[in-house]
């Protein structure tokens, strides 16, 4: 049941994205990657199931500005590149001496090897975190996978996200902080 709610939220997010970028959904490719993701992640989190059962993701080869980014500055990792990005993320954690208890999986990345990650603590608490390559600390952005998708949808509804002159997805940073903090009161990211 939970996957269904996340899938619905994810589909709403795609619909809202398409209002600004009509070709975005098609650029993400078809879903149905359950076998692929299960091969990489035997215990696939519901959030990743919802995403990759719907789309394949954005290839690192994509060149059309309006189609690269899932959120400003980050692309949705393509299923075919997922294993590679997991290794990059693990390498950063290792290099920075971070050994968090629990599960950390990449969702979004950028060209600087920064990540937006799914994190499940040893106690089973699921959150979505920011991990910047230069620091290696997990900073909670979204209180749960539900809040991650709900907040992203709100960013479109409240016009936090828009296309800049060159066609890249951009955002109103002040409004983003207000909306993010309102929906994710426990997340440190928005209060810093």
Low-pLDDT residue spans = none
Number of helices: 9
Estimated radius of gyration = 16 Å
Report strand %: 15-25%
Order of helices and strands: HHHHHEHEEEEHEEHH
Taking strands numbered 1, 2, ... along the chain, how are they ordered across the largest sheet?
Answer: 1-2-3-4-5
Q: Could you give the count of β-strands?
A: 7
Query: How would you sum up the global shape?
Result: globular
Q: Give a quick account of the main beta sheet: strands, pairing sense, barrel closure.
A: 5 strands, antiparallel
Give the rounded overall mean pLDDT: 93
Category by helix and strand content: alpha+beta
Name the helicity range: 40-55%
Distance between the termini: 35 Å
Describe the protein in words.
The protein is α+β, with helices and mostly antiparallel strands and 192 residues long. 43% of the residues lie in helices and 17% in strands. The protein has helices at 2-20, 24-27, 34-40, 46-52, 65-68, 82-95, 145-157, 173-183, 188-191; strands at 75-76, 103-109, 115-120, 126-131, 138-142, 161-163, 169-171. The radius of gyration is 16 Å and the shape is globular.
């Amino acid at each position: 049941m939970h996957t269904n709610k996340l899938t619905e939220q994810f589909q709403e997010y795609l619909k809202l994205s398409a209002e600004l970028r009509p070709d975005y959904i098609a650029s993400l490719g078809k879903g149905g990657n359950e076998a692929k993701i299960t091969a990489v992640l035997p215990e696939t989190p519901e959030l990743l199931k919802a995403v990759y059962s719907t789309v394949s993701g954005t290839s690192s080869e994509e060149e059309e500005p309006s189609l690269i980014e899932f959120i400003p500055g980050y692309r949705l990792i393509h299923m075919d590149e997922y294993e590679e990005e997991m290794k990059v993320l693990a390498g950063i954690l290792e290099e920075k001496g971070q050994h968090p208890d629990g599960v950390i999986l990449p969702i979004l990345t950028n060209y600087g090897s920064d990540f937006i990650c799914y994190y499940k603590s040893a106690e089973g608490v699921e959150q979505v975190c920011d991990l910047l390559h230069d620091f290696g600390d997990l900073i909670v952005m979204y209180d749960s996978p539900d809040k991650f998708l709900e907040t992203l949808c709100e960013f479109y509804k409240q016009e936090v996200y828009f296309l800049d002159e060159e066609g890249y997805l951009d955002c109103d940073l002040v409004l983003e902080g207000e909306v993010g903090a309102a929906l994710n009161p426990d997340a440190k990211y928005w209060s810093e």
